[in-house]
Specification:
By secondary structure, this protein is mostly beta strands. The chain is built from no helices and 8 strands.
Length: about 130
């Protein structure tokens, strides 16, 4: 499986995939839900333990890249016996449709969930055509 996903498909095998091609270190692939409506898409990515300053988003041409570092600390006096996400890196790459306006991407991070809204370009949005009677 390659490291690039399209925004219109998800694969259950991507949840815990640990490959970060070109970066030389393992990274978790965050689970993502994509919802499309008439005006664009909304992408929800689970990024537990990630703060705004450790989140890096980039759109270049038709490629969206999400890179993030998490830091889920163990409470003082306790020791972790098994950790899969504690000090994790997240990496995910998407190929975006030409119908999407990559200049108008908005992002919000709340309670470990990244929400990206990418509107469709104006000409790709559905519009109603009124018929005049003469």
């Amino acid at each position: 499986m390659n490291d690039v996903d399209t925004v219109r498909s998800t694969s259950p095998s991507t949840v815990a995939r640990k490959d970060r091609a070109g970066y030389g270190e393992a990274a978790l692939t965050p689970p993502v839900d994509v919802v499309e409506d008439g005006t664009g898409i909304t992408l929800y990515a689970d990024l537990p333990g990630v703060s705004k300053d450790k989140l890096h988003l980039q759109v270049e041409s038709d490629t969206l890249t999400i890179d993030a570092d998490s830091n889920l600390s163990v409470p003082e006096g306790l020791q972790s016996s098994h950790t899969e996400v504690g000090l994790a890196r997240f990496h995910r790459v998407f190929t975006l449709s030409k119908e999407l306006d990559t200049e108008k991407v908005s992002a919000e991070l709340a309670q470990g969930v990244l929400t990206l809204r990418i509107p469709k370009v104006a000409q790709a949005q559905p519009r109603r055509i009124d018929v005049k009677v003469s």
